[in-house]
Sequence to fold (561 residues):
Amino acid sequence: MLQQLLCLSVGAVLISCNAFRQEKLPRAYRNGLVVTAHPEASNVGLQILKAGGNAVDAAVAVQFALAVVYPNAGNIGGGGFMVYRDVDGEFAALDFREAAPAAANRDMYLDESGNPIVDLSLRGQLASGVPGVVDGMVRAHERFGKLDWAALVKPAVDLAQKGFPLTAMQARELNSRKESFTKYNPLGTAFVREVEWTEGDTLVQPELAHTLSLIAERKRAGFYEGEVADRIVEEMNRGNGIISYDDLKRYEAKWREPVASTYRGYRVVSMPPPSSGGIALISMLKSVEAFPLSRWGFQQDSTMRVMIEAERRVYADRATHLGDPDFYDVPQDMLIDSAYNADRMRNMSFSHASFSSDIHAGSLPQPEHEETTHFSIVDQEGNAVSLTTTINGSYGSHVVVAGAGFLLNNEMDDFSVKPGAPNMYGLIGGTANAIEPGKRMLSSMTPTILEKDGELFLVVGTPGGSTIMTSVFQTILNVVDFGMNMQEAVSAPRFHHQWLPDEVAAEKEAIDPAVRRSLSGSGYKLVDRSAIGRVDAILVLPDGSLQGGADPRGDDKAMGY
Ligand code: DON
Fold:
């Protein structure tokens, strides 16, 4: 019904309306559901749930499986964030973000004239922060896991040892990076072979299998000490890297207090700093709460104006106020305050676009298939995991640790390498996010969980660099304000404004032609953008069953029972 209303009201775009609308309701599952970026990883999670594992057990197994079957973002050489809600409504937030090595310093990516040397923070050994995933998974498992640790790593070991069939998308991506992999891995890697990869080819990763089996056996010590630590330090020495034995030994994932607020009666719980995600998401929700979005309708003229102006204002705050809370005093309470955000929206006009400041920020690069990955899991008891993990860009620094078979992140680029200079997502920052030894670089990752009337309602998150918060924001509005089911909310086209550059980046079908004309006439600069985000989410239906939304922009898959 809502679908018909929406599409009739913008008759000219009937086809694009229908493109993400579901003919029939997505399947609902009674017991448990796993939604990840790769079918093999979803299956690993599902089998763990069926074997009696809980959502955290499944998350640990999925994280390791993704490191094998989705190497552009799944990882053990990067970091991430997990938001967890148990069946009784207790929340926990785990920060396993990478940290700057002890030998890092504020100006390490600048040339003699003080200008950023862009490639240095993006490719090669120097681009890597100290990986956090293995310690993060160990801590998550120690606190909440039920099954034996080794049993959770084992599926990943098997996938690496025996191999798995590449999807068409994966084969294309590996082929397109052959030159770079060869350049940064003179000793060779499993990702490069003479002939081109094609769909269905088996990718076998024996070195990674060995590393994973050490982690299965020795947990944290299997990665941060011994053989794997030796390989990492050797890899650093082969290039320009600075991660030391001491950095590895000292790395610790941290439990943080989740950031929480409400939106139209729903409780929104998300990741606090060092991710900017939770604060920015809540600020955007607070900014639009006073406006009748559901009456205006999905991506209609007024809706678009309010959402864009909210996004613009929140990203301006992000650039100044957010950084690692262990190094910088983040004004969190102010930023998520209802009155503060309502006040920021007061100077918006419905007749013309606001102007972002004049600060030169460079233009948002087209996504170079930058990658992170998110997964959502709900188990039979009703515990929920929302976890986003990354090596930053697609395949991170492109450096595979020789002899250990895993990719290192290029997360150092998420620091502000110079005040006002844009990173690979066009994001700028200043002192709050300057490089310091041991500090964690500011993130946009936004693993989020919503409650309705004290019960689990929505588990959501996405990759997408700077677009992460706006994609999560829009997915929540799609469900709460526009009444979409989970798959529709995930498939619906997206747009993005991040203050600087002062433009609205939009997927092709995101804005109907009449609204486009109206917005352009009011001074909004609209630019086309390929896929924004890959949201994987779970909605709890009124009868308690679970509905998945797996993003059709990738190979993502919902698997439940
Ligand atoms: O932590 C961050 O915000 C970024 N490193 C995330 C990168 C990302 O999402 C790339 N994915 N498409």
Observations:
- The chain is about 35% helix and 15% strand.
- The first strand starts at residue 28 and ends at 29.
- The radius of gyration is 22 Å.
- Residues 7 and 14 are 5 Å apart (CA to CA).
